[in-house]
Structure formats: C-alpha cells, structure tokens
Amino acid sequence: xxxxxxxxxxxDTRIGLPEAVFCEGKSDEALLTLLTRxxxxxxKPILFTRLTRDRFEALPSNLRTTYDYDPLSRTAWHHTxxxxxxxxxxxxxxxxxxGFVTHEVRRTLEYLGWTVRLFEDCGVAGLWRxxxxxxxxxxxxxxxxxxxxxxxxxxxxxxLTSKPLxxxxxxxxxxxxxxxHAALSSCxxxxxxxxxxxxxxxxxxxxxxxxxxxRLLESVAR
Length: 222
Prior knowledge:
Largest sheet: 5 strands, parallel
Strand content: 15-25%
Order of helices and strands: HEHEHHEEEHEHEHEHEH
Radius of gyration: 18 Å
C-alpha cells in the first residue's frame, strides 16, 4: 500500500498551499504510513483532515504524542508553518452546532501560519450579535462565514463587509435542510454580490481560499 501513495510534497512551491491528507476513506495501513512519515521534524508540515477521534486513538501511543490533535475539527499536525506577520481572517459562525466546520477553518489557517479571530454563535435569530461584532470582524482582511439551516447569515454578513467573503454552508439542520443542500442553495442564491461559496462542510477549502487572498495581500504589502 505504501508504494501506491504518491505524495505531492512540492505542491506548496507551485501554488503556495501544501498538500493535506484527507483521512476519510483511507485504509488503516495507508493512514499509519502517512502519519508515521510526517511525525518527523525533517518532513514539511502536513495537515491531516477528517481524522476521527476513534481512528486517532487507535494509533500507537508513541505516534499520538507527536501530533497536535483536535477532535472537534478532526485535524492533526506534527508541526506548522511559520507565523505570518501580516494578514488576518475573521471566522463568523451562525451557531456552535457548526463548530466542526468552523474549527476546521480555524485549525487549517493556524497550521498555515495566519492570524485568526473567531466570532461564534452569531446567527440571524439574534441580529444584535452580528451587529455588536461587525466592527471587529471588519478589522480582518478576509471573512469566512460558516452557517447551516438557511445560511441567512451569509447574505447578512455580505451586506456588512467590503472584505473578501467566503461562505461555507454546513450540513446542520432539520428535515428540509437535507444535509446542507438548503444552506448551499441559499448561499448560491445570495443577493449579496461577490460572495464566494464553498462546498457543504468544506472548512478546509474555505481556509485555503482565504490563504490565497492573504498571500496576495502580503506580497503587495512587502
């Protein structure tokens, strides 16, 4: 199995973003091979995503101790990229139920070395919460909005910021929410112009999109 793994180790030099390991669907053998390899300080930093608590806890104890693991976001790393001195992201979530996606965004950006500020539980059922936070949100260079149900927060935030905005619809919601499809449709149909929409629950993708913008801003600022 290890011979079948063709890791794109130079991706960061081509596009400015390193390859990550999507753990869901990988065999235990393949996952163990990758986790063992990237537990070395001699390897580049690598982010493991969709790594469930059960699979992480099944690893040998000496391997687990080499990783920084977060069960909510299901992410792990051995070490991270250096901290950037410029650029920040505001992550705004509708509710704490969206936390598994919200914190995938956070952890991915922190792994890449960017500054992050969280604004959780800002759903539109209590508009005073987003109103109270909007000035601080607008201090960031990029905004990521994470929302399930009808994802109305995306349109509201799209009317309150001039910053690049990436929306992540989540699979949170009852019945007709249909695993995030209602939220995705709402985001795509948003009347707020210029909102870019990620796939359902794709916090990693939103973080990478934000990082692309921040790298460009950083290069201009130099």
